Amino acid sequence: MSLIEAKGIVVTFAIRKGLKKLPFNAVDNVDLEIEQGMIVGLLGESGSGKTTLGKVTLDLVKPTKGIVKFMGKDIRKMYKEDYRKYRLNAQYVPQDPYASLHPFKTTKDILMDIIKYHKLVHSDKEALELVSDTMIKVGLNPPEKYLNKYPFQLSGGERQRVSIARALLLKPMYIVADEPVTMLDASLKGAIVSTLKNAIQAMRTSLLFITHEITLLQYFGSQTKVLVMYLGRVVEQAPLGELLQNPLHPYTQALISAIPVADPKARASRKLLLRGSPPSPLSKPPGCPLSDRCPFVTEKCRKEEVVLKAISSKHLVACHLY
Amino acid sequence: MSEILLGVKNLNVSYFNTKVVSNIYFNIFKGETYALVGESGCGKSTIASSIMRTLPEIAHIDADSQILYYASPHPVDLLKVPEYEFSNNFRWREIAMVPQGALNSLNPTIRIKDHFMETARAHNLDKKEALEKAWKLLEAVKLDPHRVLSLYPIEMSGGMKQRVLIALALLLNPKLLILDEPTTALDVLTQREILIMLNELKAKYGLTYMLISHDIALVADIADRVAIIYAGRIVEESNVENIFYNPKHPYTIGLLKAVLKLGEFREPETIPGSTPDYRKLPPGCKFHPRCPFAMDICRREEPPFIEVEKDHFVSCWLYAKR
Ligand SMILES: Nc1ncnc2c1ncn2[C@@H]1O[C@H](COP(=O)(O)OP(=O)(O)OP(=O)(O)O)[C@@H](O)[C@H]1O
Ligand SMILES: Nc1ncnc2c1ncn2[C@@H]1O[C@H](COP(=O)(O)OP(=O)(O)OP(=O)(O)O)[C@@H](O)[C@H]1O
Ligand code: SF4
Ligand SMILES: [Mg+2]
Ligand SMILES: [Mg+2]
Asked: Residue A100 C-alpha to ligand 1 middle, in angstroms?
């Protein structure tokens, strides 16, 4: 049984234009399934709906349509006790560490309060030990260096690690990590991602890892299920190894070719396969959402909706070319 | 080489009594892209804020530190200029910055047009002139001014917001633009677009960039010269080719090794140990506790900064004469 199952998720937001409110779908009919102990990678263009989808699975955003199940139970129809268990077990590492840490609390308070609130341990001493252990795991070492600092006294990457520590503390069954290491260098990124991987493997936790760095997902192995989003839709879904070797969707192809290669000589030869920025969600083109930028566009793409089709048992793509 | 635009000399910065930036020297030449690279917490943003003079109250810059700005024939020490003069003549007019994490700093309640108008008002710029300038700048950052000026921040993607922030920073025609982690929050495709746009912008307006990033792969795509920072010190400096093809400092070598190539499935290769604790930095080379090549002298004496080949400087005992 899947730990998290989201089906037919639609999230409609409205943008206020003067007196009018113009609705658009930030997430548009997406299915997402995460088995217990599994890692799912979520890639996609900025604004494509990754955060919104992640929040839907945590019940931080209410979907306009669709249902979310936790351990097979619809979270809207759960008994109070089950719902409490779900909320306690579904934790979030938010995307923006500049906005998400309480500004007037020290690192120590931020982390200790959670433990106390959920009554995880019996004494302050135990709580502090747990906090320190977790901080060391995420590279906030030695902990004393950070315990009494307020968020504004921490660098960007330090804030991100406080957020990760906060999510790990509760040993939840499900974590949504939303671009959790964007501010760290390659070495620390690798270290923290493997910490996260080991921690969740030890706890049999499921992880939804939102990122724009495909290479980072490589630490989770070639079998990791990856979803690629564009303008609210999932345009491709495949195990990572397959996705890298055989990217089918023109957007995925462009994304992979844009990855920085750490080679100054490669500058001249690096092509940009897709130009322009994605349209505003309000002016999403009819048919395929990529049709206004896609180099392979045909008449059909501009008119007909595309749905996610299975090319093989684990590789799905939403593109008229296939 | 061409003319110097900014010369940082013996910069030392502390928060309370903890020194985080030590003995920093570097020159930025007119028209180049100079990159500061280093792990989270190494002091990059602190250096940027020292130049912009936006450090918090509790920060202290040593009296003999100098930041020389060579706009006129006679260099001006920016640290000695009175605040009103600095804010009237230098901040935003000569040197502007797009700060780290700025994507969410746009005021959500006002339109983009008003962001430009407020900045103009704060600097006594004529309204009509400012609007014309805003229009031109938005075109230069590849946005449609007609549409974007009337948008609210929430109606824009991360990439669009970053472009707006860059355009805003250029409103008063600065010569030096400091970009603190300009693309971390963006997907790789948008990243590439922004980098291409930054290069065009630089040529068009004759700009000089100081780029701050933890992402060495990104630096390969855009920087001319690179300074590698560790524990608030520059440990290596050279042109981008030397840094990538002939790195000398063990820390630089470690950073480069940690970068995962596309399609590589392996355990992360990380630099062992943890980031230094500024309150009790080790004696000698600050990197020695983590360095695979550490020798006796490394534990005792701080290595000098020496030129190992033309324009290639390293601070490491492996290359220094004892
Ligand atoms: N509360 C909200 N009200 C209105 N629109 C919203 C709201 N939250 C998000 N949006 C819009 O919904 C779309 C999807 O946003 P989301 O944050 O999920 O994207 P994302 O893929 O996480 O992007 P990024 O990579 O920039 O984090 C965007 O166009 C965004 O501007
Ligand atoms: N206001 C402050 N008070 C005390 N310490 C601070 C303050 N701001 C930063 N620091 C500390 O100074 C050091 C350098 O911080 P800085 O923000 O310059 O790092 P950075 O290189 O920009 O890191 P990142 O890549 O994570 O943004 C860090 O150890 C940080 O904890
Ligand atoms: S000085 Fe010594 S410890 Fe420092 S980097 Fe060089 S070899 Fe390593
Ligand atoms: Mg997001
Ligand atoms: Mg910083």
From this structure: 16
